[in-house]
Amino acid sequence: xxxxxxxxxxxxxxxxxxxxxxxxxxxxxxxxxxxxxxxxxxxxxxxxxxxxxxxxxxxxxxxxxxxxxxxxxxxxxxxxxxxxxxxxxxxxxxxxxxxxxxxxxxxxxxxxxxxxxxxxxxxxxxxxx
Length: 129
Description:
Strand content: under 5%
Helix content: over 70%
Structural class: mainly alpha
Number of helices: 7
Shape: globular
Order of helices and strands: HHHHHHH
Oligomer: single chain
Radius of gyration: 13 Å
Distance between the termini: 28 Å
Largest sheet: none
Number of strands: 0
């Protein structure tokens, strides 16, 4: 599975977990739709969930006039996913790749403003790191 696909599937799984409290294994199984499991997908989902408090507090520091809870579910989980990659997988994935991928995924799954919003927040996170 390509990393872009793994990121998209991880976003879908995190969305399910966030909205309905689905168990991570069940959410991953559901988004795979019969495909075989992918290690990067599992790393992303488990990593975001394991470090969620740290990631959320980092994101909150860069939100202006917004709370994390008020963000669209897609945007919130895409930010979590991207901050996880920036912070914990920086040796494996260049920061610019993380930002580019997040912006492209935001265009697919978010609303008209999502890609600009995601870019703005992640650019600040990248500068800090």
